[in-house]
Structure formats: C-alpha cells, structure tokens
Amino acid sequence: MNATTTDGQSLLIVEDEPDLLELLRFNLDREGFEVHTAETGEDGLKLLRRARPNLMVLDLMLPGMDGLEVCRQVRQDAALKDTSIIMLTAKGEESDIVRGLEMGADDYVTKPFSPRVLVARIQSVLRRVKSVGVEDGRLRVANVTLDQERHEVTIDGQPTDLTATEFKLLHLMMKRPGRVYTRQQIIEGVHEGFAAVTDRSVDVQVVALRKKLGAAGRRIETVRGVGYRFRE
Ligand code: CA
Asked: Quick check: 88 pLDDT over 60?
C-alpha cells in the first residue's frame, strides 16, 4: 500500500548534464512528483529555499559549487536541514560517497543507473522519513523487534542476548532501515566518537552482531568501500 508515496511530494534535481536531467525530470514527473530542476549547486540552493521540496536528487560532480558543498550548506541551514538528499555519484568514487553520507546525505545512486532504480530509492527514503516514529518504544523490521525501554531484542519473539554495544549498533541501524552508515558514523553513533574505536573494531562488532541474529543477521549488509546497512 505505498501507492500514495508520491502524493503531494516535491523533488529538486540538481544535475548539470542536460540529457540526464531531462530523462529524470520526465520519469519523476510521470511518477506523480512535482519536479523542480537546477543545473548548478548555486541555483539548486536558491530553488531549495524557494520551493522547499521534500527531497533533493543531487549530483556530486557539478561545475562551481560541488554537490558535497551543497550538501554541507543544506545540513547547516536550520530551514533546509530536514530535506532528504540522494546523491548521484560516479562509479569508483567511494571516498566521495563516504564523505557525502557523513555530511548527512540519506542515500546515493551510482551512475549509470536506470530511472526505475532512482524512483525506488526516492520512495524508500521518503517512506523512511514517514516511518521513523517508534511504535510503543519498539522498532520492528520483519521478524526482528528492538524494545528500547526493556533493552531487549527478539527474533520471532525469542529474546537474543546482545552486549550493550551490539544493542546500540542494531538500534542505530534499525532506526533507519535501508540507510547506509559509514564506519565513522557508527563510531559516533555507538561509541560517542570514542577515538580508540577503530574501523576494524566496528567490523568485528558487526560480525558478532550478525552471528547473534542468526538468519536475520543477513539483513546487515556490507556496502563495499562505504559501510553497513540494515536491509528493509
Ligand atoms: Ca555532473
């Protein structure tokens, strides 16, 4: 029942390649979104302030102000910071993806991509924004339930014994299923940025958590060169 995801939702596409911009405009318009477009980061920011779209599709490689800088300015602006952002990145630009996610982008799509893939990502990000609300203190994804108040995780109703760190790690990822977290974001979210925690120890904790979750552990996916996500 997600046929209404697009209802009344507006998007801004910032992309300097005219053909791609037209293709995206055509496809997203057909999906029922109200579509705004800009070809530079500067124009994108202006339009963002004027049109207040729900979500911005942002190319990282732009002439002048690049996408990372646009992303940074959006997240620092109290009026704009809640705008969802999906980055468009070139293949092999993992370091840019990591930086973009750490600047607060919600997701990314790697070029070349089919418009259908982008539409699915947009709908997924917009759905996530709606479903962030917690039901009676519990997060639920498929057969995994995390009870914040009781500090308990159950799989098919069966309690699982997690350490405090594993619980925090799962909580972080389950709050935004489908969202990719970089190792640095995990260190900040789980360990309050504790400097002694390395990328490697994050990997070790993820492996341990996966094991304890049994078959549901497969929902924690490794995103090569970027980080981890809990699959919806
Ligand atoms: Ca570009």
From this structure: yes
Q: Which residue has the tokens 């630009």?
A: 93
Q: Determine the distance separating the centroid of ligand 1 and the alpha carbon of 35, expressed in angstroms.
A: 19
Pairwise CA distance, residues 5 & 106, whole Å: 17
CA angle 124–129–132, rounded 5-degree value: 110
Phi, psi torsion values for 190, nearest 5 degrees: -100, -35
Q: Delimit the domains of the chain by residue range.
A: 10-130, 132-230
| Ion ligand 1 nearby residues (CB, 5 A) | 16, 59, 61
CATH architecture of 132-230: Orthogonal Bundle (1.10)
Higher pLDDT, 93 or 119: 119
Residue 181 has pLDDT above 70, yes or no: yes
Distance between Cα 129 and ligand 1 center (Å): 27
Instruction: For residue 62, report the distance from its CA to the centre of ligand 1, in Å.
Output: 5
Report whether pLDDT(2) > 50. no
- Cα 131 to Cα 143, 175, 196, distances in angstroms: 17, 9, 34
Which of 74, 55, 44, 80 minimizes the C-alpha distance to 5? 55
Q: What fold is seen in the domain 10-130?
A: Rossmann fold (3.40.50)
